[in-house]
Design a protein that fits this description.
single chain, mainly beta, 6-stranded antiparallel sheet, 1 helix, 8% helix, 46% strand
Length: 175
């Protein structure tokens, strides 16, 4: 009897469609001047929803207008080097990234000292600082949220966050 049940369960497991996470885990990293910068996040998809602005999906989060800049757990950022992010001095270490999206066309990156929390836990008292992001529109809508870290050479890098009809970026200088 046990072998029959095991066989049925195995057959069911093999025939079940693979389920992809709605917001799969993702990482982005870059090495600049021998120092590593890394972002770990969950990448949600638009799936036909309005994301930003009045009535958008993000406005339903309890921390709105502060957004976890991803899904699930808060977006983690690690740097092996001291940085200057658009004028904000960031010592090497671990941080959480949030974005203030109250104005969907003028975002503010928030570097927060608290780490390891669920994405809907935000404490402004833990902010290291905030910087304005450079905004642009993509040539076509971006279905799945993505971070990009690029080496701009000469100790310079760029962090870019793109989703839906928004692309936001900040310059980084590795010290």
């Amino acid at each position: 009897m046990t072998r029959i049940v095991a066989g049925i369960l195995l057959a069911f497991a093999l025939s079940a469609p693979l389920v992809q996470a709605q917001s799969p885990a993702a990482t982005e990293s870059v090495t600049v001047n021998g120092k590593n910068l890394k972002i770990a996040y969950a990448a949600p998809s638009v799936r036909g929803r309005k994301i930003f602005g009045d009535g958008g999906q993000i406005s339903k989060d309890p921390t709105y207008p502060v957004w976890r800049a991803g899904a699930n757990s808060a977006t983690a950022f690690h740097t092996d080097a001291d940085l200057n992010i658009a004028g904000l001095n960031v010592p090497k270490g671990d941080y959480t990234l949030f974005v203030d999206v109250k104005n969907p066309d003028a975002w503010t990156l928030i570097v927060n000292k608290q780490t390891g929390q669920w994405g809907l836990t935000y404490e402004a008292a833990q902010d290291l600082g905030r910087v304005k992001m450079n905004m642009s529109k993509p040539p076509a809508p971006i279905e799945q949220l993505r971070y990009t870290l690029t080496d701009e050479h000469g100790g310079k890098a760029q962090l870019q966050l793109a989703w839906e009809n928004h692309v936001a970026s900040v310059p980084i200088t590795v010290k």
